[in-house]
Amino acid sequence: MTARTALPRLIALLLALLLPRAAAAQEGTASFGSGPTDLLLRSTTDIAIIRPVMARFAERNPDLTLRYEQWGSNALYALGRAACAGRAEPADALLSSGAHQMLALVNSACAHPYRSAATAALPDQRRWRDELWGITEEPAVIIYNTTALSPEDVPRTRFALLDLMRKKPELLRSRIATYDIEDSGLGYLFAHADSLEATTFGAMLEAFARIGAIATCCSLSIIDGVSEGRYYIAYNVLGSYAEARAAPNVGIILPEDYTLMMSRSFMIPKTARHPEAAQRLLDFLLSPEAQGMLADLGLIAPTDPAETSLLPSARRLIALSPPLLLALDRSTRERLFRLWDEAFSPDAG
Amino acid sequence: MADRGALPASLASRVLKAVLLILLAGALLVAGSTLYNGRLAARQSYDRILLGAAQDIAASISIQSGRPIVDLPVSAFELLAQAPEDRIHYAVRGPGGTLITGLDETEIAPTARRSGTPSGPEFFDARLNAEPARFVRVTRRFAERDFSGSISVTVGQTLRARQAMAVGLMLDTLLPMMLAGLALLAMSWAITRSAVRPLAALSEDLAGRDPYDLTPVPTEGLPRELAVMLDSMNRFMGRLDRQMEGMRHLISDAAHQLRTPVAAIRVQAEAMQDQPDEALRARALTRLLTRTRSLGALLDQLLSRALVSHRTESAPRALLDLREVALEVVERGDHELIAPGAELRLEIGEDPVMVRADAFSVGEAAKNLLVNALKHGRGPIAIGAERRGAEAALWVLDAGPGPEPAIAARLGQRFERSAGSREDSAGLGLAIVAAVATAFDGRVALEYPEAGFRIALLLPAAPDEEPTP
């Protein structure tokens, strides 16, 4: 294990050990309702975005107090592993955008099985072993600054983006941003999926290296950067956040060659103290009402091609199935990180 | 109809029960064997997938500057995803068991380690996070300039898909069998119903019959098993019919035979009442006594006749020595009462004269033959038994001329009494003899030897070597 991957895990683990309710490691907390039973949900989803859904759930279940903790996906995974081994305070439910990490937890027998009409109705790609369920469907998009790019330069596909980087390197130098895959579980997942999906991935990394693209952290700061004109283009940004932020001057593109779809995965740890309450939360999140709210919030991309200008064949949902475990493989990670490091050398950013 | 529930189980329900039992036993057997075979098949096919994944991973190992590098192929995981609901495990280990890459640090290895490195893939069962799982280990040896040693690839998978496949195979077999079983049940129900339907018609026929109607029931179109039952029922009804016939004859015989003597006794008794003369009265009394005695004898004969006709119908046939019958008749000494002083000889030989018959009936016949000879014949009288070829004879001989040929021709009919004959006439006695002869497949023979008249009861002879029970 390299020091790079070990460090965040170690920190999360230490924090979990020393301060079971550490406020320092989590990005934010919120509490909904005031019932006698505590339901602890650890999530990677921004509280600000998902608040109405959680508030509605608390309203519907007055006997529960929903304690919502927001974590980074890597920290959430480390904490989940520790809780599974009994070394940290267990959550009652996990909701993470790092689907591969949740899959690994399920594969390590850390999950509690559950089956209901709502879970059975999910498509196979959004369910594994009745222990892991995909709640949302969010696209990985390209966003751009509408004032900085002339309409004919707007890249509708990855090939167009590659061409643009080749043709106008000076315009885009240090103006392209993407997630830092070392910091962001989601960024890594998208990069991994890209590396499996198409040969353009290598060319993309090369082009990024050539024009000095920026690998940075956090959806919101990237979106704001594009809005403010610090970046002209951002690649593989979570479309739902871009939609929800509704920042001025930001255009959103669902790449037409293929658009990756990520599903936030819900899991009930086997060490959960209130699995029954977590099951109610799951059934609520899959109910037509909550799914409708999530769609309104942009967390479920519309499937209608007329609305998205995206062909159904271009939708690539990252399936919750064993091949996703490959994303966590040590040698696979090392190789991807090596490629990444070659593209984004520390002095390039 | 209302109390049908209390009746014993119907044939149809018995057959259905038996068929159901057979089906259940068969289903259990088939389920067991197909589950076993299904598990075997599932194990084989999923073992191949496991091996394919392990070999995929093994093939992706390369040595770069002295270090083993694994470029895990997605195809290996997609192979494993053929069992979509199963947890997986993989580990690539270098010399000394150091983990090169894998999901888990803990080493899962075959329990029975054989000495030396195995050449082929090793399959083994172990637990994966407390769940039973199947593993395969493939070892690849490297002999490069800068790396030499063997690298093992262990791939494992939990058993959900295997179990689902085995159960699916079992259900696939059981479903057609269940359908066939249902068809079998319906068919056996229909067949039993149609086989038993004639019984309903039969019972209706019997219920609607006249109480004296003992004619046979028709047996055409019935299953053989039912026809057998009906045949014996018909035989039984036939016997009943003959007995009823006998009873009717007896009653009319009795009425016919008794009416005249009883009337005569009454007339004599009335005459006696009005007779003032002592001497005449004494004579009338004597006559009355004689008449009463002969009425008694007549009654005896009637009863004996009734008994004989009843027994010949119902009594079992036994082996019987006719010499013993003759001896018994002589020894009983009835003739001393009927004709005191008459001379009676017994003529029997050394050899047994065996027949199959009822001892009582044959005894009655012998008694009647003797009584007839005593009454109508002339002494000396002889009784005897002998074997005549295939027949056995029980005979009575007297020195008289025998009956008139006209009477002899009518012998053995039920009424052998002309209006003028006496009450204790030979009629009834010979009728008994004739009845016994008919009942045991024999005949009555009248013979006129030089020295008188002989009447014989001839029955089929039985082999005399059979022991007498």
TrEMBL record, chain B:
Keywords: Kinase, Membrane, Phosphoprotein, Transferase, Transmembrane, Transmembrane helix, Two-component regulatory system. Its EC number is 2.7.13.3. InterPro entries: 2CSK_N (IPR013727), HAMP_dom (IPR003660), HATPase_C_sf (IPR036890), HATPase_dom (IPR003594), His_kinase_dom (IPR005467), HisK_dim/P_dom (IPR003661), HisK_dim/P_sf (IPR036097), TCS_sensor_his_kinase (IPR050428). It catalyses: ATP + protein L-histidine = ADP + protein N-phospho-L-histidine. GO terms for molecular function: kinase activity. It is found in: Membrane. Residues 193-245 form the HAMP domain. Pfam families: 2CSK_N, HATPase_c, HisKA. Coiled coil: none annotated. Residues 253-463 form the Histidine kinase domain. The chain crosses the membrane at residues 15-36, 169-191. The keyword Iron does not apply. This is histidine kinase.
